[in-house]
C-alpha cells in the first residue's frame, strides 16, 4: 500500500472517531494504536507501555499544574478586585474608560496567571457588574472581556507555550520572551479600537469624572503585588537562575503568600483551586499522551517528512502555504478547543513549517495567536461560554456579536506578526545577545 493511501486511511479513521463523539485524546490514542498494530513489527507494540510514562515523566510539563494552580489561587483570592480598582482611575482619562480597564486588567492578570479562561472569568466577574450598573454598552463590555481574556496565553507565562515547547522541543524561556511584544501590540490594538468606537459613538460609555493624575499614578503603584509576582517568576527564568518549572513553583508560593496577606482565601476556595488544577492537568496530559502515540505511528511511516517534502515541492511561494495553514487552524478552531487543536496538528504542521524555513519560536507565537482566535470563534469558543455563563441574561449570540470586532483585530495582529517576524523574535535574540 502506498503512503498516500495510508494517509487517507488515517484521515478517515480520525474523522470517524471524532465524528462519533469520542473524546479527542482517546480518538488520537485509538488511531495511533491501530497504526502501530497494523504497520509496525509485532515487537514494536511494546512501545505503547512506554509512551505514557516517558511523556508524563517530564520536568518541563510539571510547570503546567504549577502555573494553573497559581492562576487558580489568584482567581479565588480576590486579588483581581484590587487590580481592577487600582487601574480604573488611570483609564478614566481615555475614551471608553472602564473598557480600557478591562483590557489592561486582563493583560496584567495574564502576566501572573498563564490561562485565558481563568483571566476571562476573573476579570469578567469583577468588571461586568460595574460596567452594566454604570450604563456601559453590554455588547462591547462582553466582547472586550472575552478578547482581553485571550491575552492570558500570549503574555507569559503561558500554559499553551509550555505545551508547544514540550512537543517540538523548543526553549520555554525563548517562547515566553517572544510573547511579550505581540501581547502588548494586540492589547494596544484592542484599546485603540475601543477608543475610536467610544469617540465616534459616545453613548457606548457614560461620561465619568476624570480622576486627578496624582490618584491615577498612585493607583498604578497599587498593582505592585501582581507586578512583583510577575517579575519574580519571569525574572528568574530570563536571568537563568531558575528553570520554567522552578519559577512556576516560586509563583505558586508567591500567589499563596499574596492570598494569605489579603486574607481572602479560605479552605473551600483552596480545595476548589486544587481540584480544578487536577482536572485541567489530567485533561492536558491525556491529550499529550494521545498526541505522542499518534505521532509514533506517523513517524514510523515517515508521514510528517513525506508531507513536508510534498508541500515544499509545490510551485507556490511559502507564504501561500502559510496562509493555507492559517485557514486550516481558523476552521479547526471553530470545532475544538485550543489545546486539543495544537496537540492534534503539530506533528503534521510543524515539520512543514520547518521545511519552509520559518523560525520555530516565531511559529510558536503564531500558534498561540491562532489558539486565541479559537477561544473566540463559535461554536466552541471557551471564552464566549465563560462570559455567557457569567451573564446568562444575554444570549450566546449576543456575546458572539460583541466579540466579532476583536476577532478581526486578532487576525490583524496575526498578520502583523507574520509580516514582521521581529515582533516575536527581537526580544529573545536581544536577551541572548546580552548574556
Task: Give the key terms.
435 residues; 21 helices; 77% helix; globular
Report on the structure:
- With 435 residues, the chain is mainly α.
- The protein has one domain (3-434).
- Helices cover 77% and strands 0% of the residues.
- It contains 21 helices and no strands.
- Helix 4 (63-76) runs parallel beside helix 13, helix 16 runs parallel beside helix 18 and helix 17 (338-355) packs antiparallel against helix 18 (360-376).
- The chain starts with a helix and ends with a helix.
- The relative contact order is 0.15.
Structural classification: mainly alpha
Radius of gyration from CA coordinates? 22 Å
Unreliable residue stretches: none
Number of domains: 1
Count of alpha/pi helices: 21
Strand content: under 5%
Provide the succession of SSEs. Answer: HHHHHHHHHHHHHHHHHHHHH
Largest sheet: none
Name the shape in a single word. globular
CA(first)-CA(last) distance: 53 Å
Number of DSSP strands? 0
Mean of all residue-level pLDDT scores:
83
Kindly state the percentage of residues in helix: over 70%
**Oligomer classification:** single chain
Amino acid at each position: 500500500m502506498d503512503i498516500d493511501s495510508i494517509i487517507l486511511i488515517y484521515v478517515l479513521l480520525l474523522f470517524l472517531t471524532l465524528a462519533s463523539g469520542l473524546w479527542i485524546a482517546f480518538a488520537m490514542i485509538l488511531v495511533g494504536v491501530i497504526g502501530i498494530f497494523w504497520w509496525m513489527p509485532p515487537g514494536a507494540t511494546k512501545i505503547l507501555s512506554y509512551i505514557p510514562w516517558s511523556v508524563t515523566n517530564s520536568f518541563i510539563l510539571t510547570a503546567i499544574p504549577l502555573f494553573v494552580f497559581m492562576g487558580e489561587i489568584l482567581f479565588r483570592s480576590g486579588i483581581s478586585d484590587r487590580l481592577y480598582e487600582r487601574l480604573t482611575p488611570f483609564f478614566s482619562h481615555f475614551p471608553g474608560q472602564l473598557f480600557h480597564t478591562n483590557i489592561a486588567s486582563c493583560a496584567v492578570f495574564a502576566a501572573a496567571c498563564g490561562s485565558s479562561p481563568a483571566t476571562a472569568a476573573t476579570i469578567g466577574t469583577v468588571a461586568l457588574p460595574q460596567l452594566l450598573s454604570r450604563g456601559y454598552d453590554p455588547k462591547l463590555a462582553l466582547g472586550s472581556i472575552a478578547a482581553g481574556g485571550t491575552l492570558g496565553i500570549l503574555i507569559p507565562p503561558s500554559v499553551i507555550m509550555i505545551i508547544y515547547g514540550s512537543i517540538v522541543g523548543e526553549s520555554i524561556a525563548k517562547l515566553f520572551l517572544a510573547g511579550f511584544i505581540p501581547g502588548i501590540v494586540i492589547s494596544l490594538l484592542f484599546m485603540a479600537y475601543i477608543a475610536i468606537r467610544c469617540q465616534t459613538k459616545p453613548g457606548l460609555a457614560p461620561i465619568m469624572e476624570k480622576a486627578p493624575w496624582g490618584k491615577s499614578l498612585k493607583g498604578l503603584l497599587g498593582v505592585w503585588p501582581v507586578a512583583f509576582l510577575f517579575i519574580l517568576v519571569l525574572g528568574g527564568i530570563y536571568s537563568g537562575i531558575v528553570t520554567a518549572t522552578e519559577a512556576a513553583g516560586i509563583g505558586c508560593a508567591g500567589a499563596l503568600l499574596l492570598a494569605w496577606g489579603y486574607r481572602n482565601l479560605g479552605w473551600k476556595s483552596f480545595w476548589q483551586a486544587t481540584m480544578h488544577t487536577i482536572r485541567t492537568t489530567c485533561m492536558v496530559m491525556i491529550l499529550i499522551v494521545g498526541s505522542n502515540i499518534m505521532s509514533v505511528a506517523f513517524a514510523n511511516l515517515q508521514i510528517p517528512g513525506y508531507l513536508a517534502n510534498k508541500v515544499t515541492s509545490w510551485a507556490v511561494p511559502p507564504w501561500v502555504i502559510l496562509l493555507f495553514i492559517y485557514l486550516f487552524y481558523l476552521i479547526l478552531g471553530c470545532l475544538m478547543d485550543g489545546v486539543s487543536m495544537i496537540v492534534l496538528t503539530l506533528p503534521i504542521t510543524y515539520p512543514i513549517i520547518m521545511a519552509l524555513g520559518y523560525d520555530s519560536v516565531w511559529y510558536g507565537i503564531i500558534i498561540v495567536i491562532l489558539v486565541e482566535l479559537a477561544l473566540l470563534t463559535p461554536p466552541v469558543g471557551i471564552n464566549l461560554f465563560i462570559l455567557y455563563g457569567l451573564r446568562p441574561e444575554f444570549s450566546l449570540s449576543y456575546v458572539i456579536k460583541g466579540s466579532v470586532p476583536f476577532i478581526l483585530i486578532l487576525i490583524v495582529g496575526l498578520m502583523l506578526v507574520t509580516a514582521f517576524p521581529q515582533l516575536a523574535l527581537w526580544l529573545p535574540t536581544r536577551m541572548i545577545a546580552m548574556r
